[in-house]
Structure to design on (174 residues):
């Protein structure tokens, strides 16, 4: 029998401690991975969606999206290794992977206030490129290299890892 032994799990799943604890709370570790059905997957998702890890505190939409993605990838790896023939989590989708209430437009005046009150030039630069250049902090900033900046044309390139296309973005400097 092919149980859900820790040694057979991808490291990223083991590192997701809350996910792993909840997964094993719902599906016992002695379960043969080939016996997990689509109904089990749906029931697991319903269970984790309604799970209160603290009184009156449930997982956020972002956390649920991440957990579903990790579990789906976990089973895809077993499918790729031909241990299972189908991924029972293939069609499980979370409500989304972002919280719309956190998407806030920062007015120019607000950014200007923070910019003027920054303690150093590094902080001012971060605020300026985030607000006026549309860069994500820290992911886009970390990826930015000096050679990506074209001072003559007034442009810089962001090599993106996020977004729909995962492609590069060209940003004009004002």
């Amino acid at each position: 029998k092919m149980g859900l032994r820790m040694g057979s799990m991808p490291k990223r799943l083991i590192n997701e401690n809350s996910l792993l604890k909840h997964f094993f709370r719902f599906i016992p570790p002695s379960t043969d991975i080939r016996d997990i059905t689509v109904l089990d997957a749906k029931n697991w998702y319903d269970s984790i969606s309604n799970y209160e890890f603290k009184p009156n505190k449930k997982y956020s939409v972002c956390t649920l999206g991440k957990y579903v993605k990790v579990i789906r990838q976990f089973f895809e790896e077993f499918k790729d290794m031909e241990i299972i023939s189908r991924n029972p989590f293939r069609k499980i989708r979370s409500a989304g992977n972002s919280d719309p209430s956190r998407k806030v437009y920062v007015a120019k005046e607000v950014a200007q206030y923070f910019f003027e009150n920054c303690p150093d030039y590094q902080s001012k630069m971060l605020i300026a490129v985030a607000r006026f250049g549309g860069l994500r902090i820290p992911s886009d900033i970390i990826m930015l290299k000096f050679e990506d900046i074209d001072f003559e044309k007034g442009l810089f390139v962001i090599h993106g890892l996020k977004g729909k296309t995962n492609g590069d973005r060209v940003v004009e400097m004002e």
In short: The chain has a mean pLDDT of 78. The longest strand covers residues 155-159.
